[in-house]
Design a protein that fits this description.
Layout: H1 7-10, H2 15-18, H3 20-28, E1 34-35, H4 50-61, H5 74-88, E2 97-100, H6 102-114, E3 120-125, H7 130-133, E4 141-148, E5 154-155, H8 157-163, E6 168-174, H9 186-199, E7 203-207, H10 222-225, E8 231-236, E9 249-254, H11 261-273, H12 279-290, H13 295-316, E10 320-321, E11 330-331, E12 334-335, H14 336-339, H15 350-361, E13 363-364, E14 366-367, H16 373-376, E15 380-383, H17 388-405
Parallel strand pairs: 1-13, 3-4, 3-6, 6-7, 7-8
Antiparallel strand pairs: 2-9, 4-5, 8-9, 10-12, 11-15, 14-15
Length: about 400
């Protein structure tokens, strides 16, 4: 008999990557799979801007190949702070920031730094899975608050109020949102800040990795609205700067009256224990923050065109409906036979639906329950990243399957 794995790790599942396992089996048989599952622009027809790639090459040649300070290069911390002041009017000092291996590591470091066994963390429903996946590692409890699909997946403030308890330690906001593509208004964010501020016993985690990928409306950073509130803002290179594989993110601590000081110090201690972020990619991050962003206009234009196409096509397919995303690069359609409990539904749940779409239509999407059992169920997430011709092929194959299944 072999050794048993950790009980904590047994609880960890990451649906975005787990659905690729059956897809690989089909690919090994020579079957072409159209992949609409992963939020990586570089997997399609986007690429890191040339000046970023040049900066990486220059960094290696210039000898930036050793360890870096655990918090990140001082020049990068200054550049991040400069971006926040210029873009959002929020002032940070270098000691308020820490560079991480993408937002994923920032979430994990923050959970280990802030959460004790039994603590609750309020997360949007549906939610990026990492906010669920990391909780078993610290024996904390994720509590999903409702976002209202019929209103474009905006947070349900009344539900948030009901779910705050004495055990609630933090409240997560993802804006623009993964997986729904929702973009929150200033009014909605102000309401969240007002509620959090009135409680006084929790801090906010604001995930803003998609902040400049928007199609209608303006993205507001929570730290500019709740300047007097304890807020940890997470951002990085992966999405806006089209460099997900470089694994450079950062955490920014807005800590009025030192409310987050001990958590921030714990975060930095853990950062020291894992040594440092990638050295040459940090140098390229400087080029990203200081360099031109003219590529963003073309990026958002392409994404908006593909968003419009996805929205139109999904709503034309029998048995599927969807709201229109306003940011990020995801869409979160509703599977009507499951959501409305049709008597003749061909599928028992959204995971079964996704596997049927994969095996029969050869299109890979992610089951909605992977983003939260309560509010993600009976949905699926698709990216809007591929070119129109690939999207058209994928939608045609899904449409044929739906017509066949829902005769």
């Amino acid at each position: 008999m072999g050794f048993e794995p950790s009980e904590r790790v047994k609880q960890i599942h990451y649906p975005i990557r787990e659905v690729t396992v059956p897809a690989r089996i089909l690919e090994k048989k020579g079957i072409k799979i159209l992949k609409l599952n992963i939020g990586d622009p570089c997997a399609y027809d986007f690429d890191s801007p040339p000046h970023l790639k040049e900066a990486i090459g220059k960094a290696t040649k210039d000898g930036w190949n050793g360890y870096t300070p655990s918090e990140g290069y001082p020049e990068l911390l200054k550049a991040v702070a400069g971006r926040e002041l210029e873009r959002n009017g929020v002032k940070y000092e270098a000691e308020d920031l820490c560079v991480t291996a993408g937002i994923t590591e920032a979430i994990q470091l923050l959970y280990f730094s802030a959460l004790n066994p039994g603590d609750e963390i309020l997360i949007p429903g549906p939610v990026y899975p990492q906010y669920i996946t990391s909780t078993p590692l610290v024996d904390a409890k994720p509590v999903a608050y409702r976002t209202i699909e019929a209103e474009g997946w905006v947070p349900d403030l009344e539900d948030i109020k009901k779910k705050i308890t004495p055990r609630t330690k933090a409240l997560v906001v993802i804006n623009p949102n993964n997986p729904t593509g929702a973009l929150y208004s200033r009014r909605a964010l102000q309401a969240i800040c007002d509620e959090a501020g009135s409680r006084g016993n929790l801090f906010i985690i604001s995930d803003e990795i998609y902040d400049e990928l928007t199609y209608e409306g303006e993205q507001f950073t929570l730290a500019s609205i709740g300047k007097d509130l304890p807020i940890v803002t997470l951002n990085g290179l992966s999405k806006t700067y089209l460099s997900p594989g470089w694994r450079i993110g950062w955490a920014m601590f807005n800590s009025p009256n030192g409310k987050l000081e001990e958590i921030k110090q714990s975060f930095v201690r853990l950062a020291r224990a894992r040594l440092c972020p990638n050295s040459i990619c940090q140098r390229a991050a400087l080029a990203a923050l200081h360099g031109p962003k003219d590529y963003l206009k073309e990026t958002n234009s392409k994404l908006k065109q593909r968003r419009d196409y996805c929205y139109k096509r999904f709503n034309q397919i029998r048995g599927i409906s969807t709201t229109k995303p306003q940011g990020a690069f995801y869409i979160f359609p509703r599977i009507l036979p499951l959501a409305e409990k049709w008597n003749n539904s061909p599928w028992k749940n959204d995971k079964e639906f996704v596997l049927d779409v994969l095996n029969s239509a050869h299109v890979l999407v992610v089951n909605g329950s992977g983003f939260g059992e309560t509010y993600g169920a009976a949905h699926f997430r698709s990216v809007i990243l591929p070119p129109i011709d690939i999207l058209e092929e994928a939608f045609n194959q899904i449409e044929r399957l739906m017509e066949k299944r829902l005769k």
